[in-house]
Amino acid sequence: MKIRLPRELLDEIHAHGEESYPEEGAGLLLGEHEKDQREVKSILPLTNAREQAERHHRYLLTAEDMVYGEEVAEKRDQSIVGIFHSHPDHPDRPSDFDREWAIPWYSYLITSVRDGRANGSRSWRLKDDRSGFEKETLQVD
Asked: What is the DSSP string of 20-87?
């Protein structure tokens, strides 16, 4: 499993996480997929819809966000291939809450933001049996 991401898009994802800090920032990864490889062509930053008191350690993308994302992706001749979000002052690995709410097949790019600065990103895919995540190879070009 591999996901390719242009450096400028990763920089935008990091900036979104930093701007959202100390709350979690989130959005959609748009692009193309073939078998076990994905190529991110664009991103769609979205507003964290989680209730205010929980945004520092949870994010929520609504059904409306997903429909909007599908429309934007279609206009760009792309598909939603994953979701990105930040973990303020926590590692760039999925939490148990992330596992409970994740959808198999999507890539989940998580960025650690420590003290307001992006501190690294890793990508994950939920196993089909929902028992955990598998790390994806993240290729940044």
From this structure: HTTSPPEEEEEEEEETTEEEEEEEEEE---S-GGGTTT-----HHHHHHHHHHHHHTT-EEEEEEEEE
Domain that holds residue 74: 2-140
In whole angstroms, how far apart are CA 139 and each of 60, 61, 77, 134? 27, 25, 22, 16
Structure tokens at 24: 């979690």
Other Cβ atoms closer than 10 A to 29: 29
**Residue 135 maps to which CATH number?**
3.40.140.10
At 136, the pLDDT band (50, 70, 90 cuts) reads very high
Q: Are the beta carbons of 140 and 13 closer than 8 angstroms?
A: no
- Give pLDDT tens digits for 2-51: 999 999 999 999 999 999 999 999 999 999 999 889 999 999 999 999 99
pTM over 0.70: yes
**Residues of the chain with pLDDT > 90: what percent?**
97
Total of domains in the chain? 1
